[in-house]
Amino acid sequence: MDISIHATYLPHNDRDAAIAFYRDVLGFEVRNDVGYNGMHWITVGPPGQDVSIVLYPPEATPGITDSERAAITEMMAKGTFASINLATKDLDGVFERLQARDAEVVQEPVDQPYGVRDCAFRDPAGNMVRLQQLG
């Protein structure tokens, strides 16, 4: 089979903050910004890669109940609803850049006992973003 990852989804609750973080802090391209009824779906991704992250408004999820929406909002605020793992060849340099841009640091770069060096921070919606060293 010839299957590749095309997109993954992360919730967002502030269009401008999401774009500023993913475009201006991480250096991703904004590939699409679609608005409907005051909500925005934003597609971002690293330049030169085909995979994308779709930042979506969780309240637009079909069939979501008020109690589910409240639970998602609470989990987003705590950073426990969604996450993504990214990788770089320059973990310490990227970490310094993120820290200088006031990204919410959860974990400074560290050598993990399971063999990777990584760090963690949160995006403006509270999503956990883990970043690990390549090679």
**Lateral strand order in the biggest sheet:** 1-4-3-2
State the major sheet: 4 strands, mixed
Low-confidence stretches: none
Distance between the termini: 28 Å
What is the CA-atom radius of gyration, in angstroms?
A: 15 Å
Helicity, as a percent range: 25-40%
SSE order in H/E notation? EHEEEHEHEEE
Q: State mean pLDDT (0 to 100 scale).
A: 93
Structural class: alpha/beta
Count of extended strands = 8
**What general form does the structure show?**
globular
How much of the sequence lies in strands comes to 35-45%
Count the DSSP helices: 3
Summarize it:
Pfam families: Glyoxalase. With 135 residues, the chain is of the alpha/beta class. It has three helices and eight strands; from the N terminus they run E-H-E-E-E-H-E-H-E-E-E.
Tell me what you see in this structure:
This protein is α/β, with parallel strands linked by helices and 135 residues long. Helix content is 25%, strand content 38%. The protein has 3 helices and 8 strands. The protein has helices at 15-25, 66-78, 91-100, and strands at 7-11, 29-36, 39-45, 52-56, 83-88, 104-111, 117-122, 128-133. The strands form 2 sheets. A 4-stranded mixed sheet has the order 1-4-3-2, covered by helices on one side. The protein has a 4-stranded mixed sheet with strand order 5-8-7-6, with helices on one face. β7 (117-122) and β8 form a beta hairpin. The longest helix is centred in the middle third of the chain and has 13 residues, at 66-78. The protein is globular, with a radius of gyration of 15 Å. This is VOC family protein. Residues 4-134 form the VOC domain. InterPro entries: Glyas_Bleomycin-R_OHBP_Dase, Glyas_Fos-R_dOase_dom, VOC_core.
